[in-house]
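**Protein fold record**
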Amino acid sequence: MQFAVNYSREAEYLVENSLIDVDLFKCPDFSESLIQKAQEIKPCYIHFGLNAGSRQLNHIDWDQLFKLKQMTQTPYVNVHAVAFCEQYPGMDVLTEEPSHIERIIDAVVNDINKLGEAVGIENVIMENVICRGPGENMFKAIIEPNVLTEIVNRTGCSFLLDIAHAQLSALSLGFNVKDYISRMPITNLKELHITGIQKDKNGRLRDSMPMTENDWDLANWTLNNIKTIEWPEPWVVALEYGGVGQAFEWRSDQKVLIEQVPKLYEMVKTSQ
């Protein structure tokens, strides 16, 4: 397994000065110049801002996607399985009505198939997102393990497990996160994202935060399942702490990176 960290100015400085070590930078897809800059320090791969189930894939700049994928030798094209509330007016966010759930599955499957036609379905990995429940923007159905498994089975894509997304959903909806993750389509695992869960200044739980004791426990449990060959080995494990832009720069602390990157790097490498 390779080990990556979100690209940030802070991470770039620390890697360039040999204060932390990673195999790759994980870069967003919105700035070609940023990617070129990052590649001067370390190899990079792209995390694409694609959603399946929202009709976004009808408006993709395919030439740019292929350009970035080739430029960085990114092996897979990731896509988030989504069911935004505004797309299903009149439906309860917690709906268990089979016809509603089938509509959601069909929308995601149709989009993933479009992506598969463009890049090859063997190169597509689907990521689990967050559901926080009533009053929020994501239907609970799209984070259900049986729904995610159905989508993987229908399309033939692989799975990107974000354990922080799983943890936020579990905390919001009141279920056991390890049991929840265990019921996901883990046999199709290709990529793993790890990061911390903490409250922001407004008291809202966020991911891409420093790791806490609970986060380390979940990461250790996850990596141990890989080490014992219970789960397939993903091609990369990414620490999704820090980043670029207004949404992430306030949570890109060099001290956190210096403390937590080496610890997770060691955990990843010893789980192989």
Summary: The first helix runs from residue 9 to 16. The CA atoms of residues 196 and 212 lie 6 Å apart. DSSP finds ten helices and eleven strands in the chain.
